[in-house]
Design a protein that fits this description.
alpha+beta, BirA Bifunctional Protein, domain 2, three-stranded antiparallel β-sheet, 12 helices, 41% helix, binds phenylalanine
Length: 339
């Protein structure tokens, strides 16, 4: 008899329930009206006197154990049920979290910022909706300059003095107004031009412009910086400067980098010449310094500007600039970067 009770004790100790229903069935089996314990208590009267003491103690132990076990299981399962409402089923494996990727424009922009920050350039930003002064007038763009033509610039209809900036040189004008030389800053950002959208051009794109103003800054400094940049960015340090014209720089130049003619793609990209045009640059026109409150007799500076989109197309061999703004996940998911 006592052996039987001990078996029950073992069973109670081993028992585990996964649902409240299982726990309740367990309670009914042991503690219910027709349960094991009631039967055992009923049998007490037939137990020989000399065993009564041990028998009584053992069933009491079983009863206490069973009660504790039921209570413990019910509490635990009720808690889990409440959590389930709050968080869903916590025992299920987690969902795989989809890790996003950076946009190629951001990757290239961050690379450029990183390269220039290593030689002491900070990053400056300005508004995309700009006034005439910062986008044109301060930058020595005379009123008759073709870049001011309605063809190229998006003006704000209700205020002809306001426009969508056509280049981030506007940020440089603002920066010079608010900071004293030495100035070393790059200005990345989105710009807008009223151009027909095609595989090669878009009505909005991105630029990074650089500006260095200090005493005695020379064209040689500019060339050295550009060479440093192209070798860090593309692994190519052979560059050439072709004379050009920008209203805000004098002298001005276009920068070509020697890309090489190793592959068929190189031929196609460089139209068989091996050279690729990557940016415009020049020495800041003294009028511009003057307009922005810097004495051109004391200071000189250089500036350069490049299109981020164009560099992204080159780096990743993307054939259509529109891909960069179409938000096609199949395209975007291909870009992974630590930048
Ligand atoms: N702002 C010029 C452009 O948008 C680029 C440039 C910047 C050229 C600085 C010279 C110096 O094309």
């Amino acid at each position: 008899m006592i052996e039987k009770i001990k078996e029950h004790i073992e069973e109670v100790e081993r028992f585990n329930a996964h649902t409240l229903e299982e726990a309740e069935n367990f309670r009914i089996k042991y503690l219910g009206k027709k349960g094991v314990l009631n039967d055992l208590f009923a049998a007490f009267k037939d137990v020989p006197n000399e065993q009564k003491k041990e028998y009584g103690q053992t069933i009491n132990r079983l009863k206490n154990l069973a009660q504790d076990r039921v209570q413990e299981l019910k509490e635990r399962l009720a808690d889990a049920k409440a959590d389930e409402k709050r968080y869903g089923d916590l025992s299920r494996p987690g969902y795989p979290i989809e890790i996003g990727s950076r946009h190629p424009i951001s990757i290239v922009k961050n690379q450029i910022i990183d390269i220039f920050s290593r030689i002491g350039f900070n990053v400056s930003e300005g508004p995309e909706i700009e006034d005439d002064w910062h986008n044109f007038t301060a930058l020595n763009l005379p009123e008759y300059h073709p870049a001011r033509d309605m063809q190229d610039t998006f003006f704000v209809q209700t205020n002809p003095d306001m426009l969508l900036r056509t280049h981030t040189s506007s940020v440089q004008a603002r920066y010079m107004e608010n900071n004293k030389p030495p100035i070393r800053t790059i200005s990345p950002g989105r710009v807008y031009r009223n151009e027909a959208i095609s595989a090669r051009s878009h009505c909005f794109f991105h630029q990074v412009e650089g500006l260095y103003v200090d005493k005695g800054v020379s064209f040689a400094d500019l060339k050295q910086t550009l060479q440093y940049f192209t070798s860090e960015m593309f692994g190519k340090s052979k560059i050439r400067l072709r004379p050009s014209y920008f209203p805000f720089t004098e002298p001005s130049a276009e920068v070509d980098v020697y890309w090489g003619l190793e592959t068929e793609t190189d031929y196609r990209m460089t139209k068989g010449t091996g050279w690729l045009e990557i940016m415009g640059c020049g020495m800041v026109d003294p009028n511009v310094l003057q307009n922005c409150g810097i004495d051109p007799n004391e200071y000189s500076g250089y500036a350069f500007g490049m299109g981020i989109d164009r560099i992204a197309l080159l780096q990743y061999q993307i054939s259509d600039i529109r891909m960069l703004s179409e938000n096609d996940l199949r395209f975007l998911q291909q870009f992974k970067a630590s930048f």
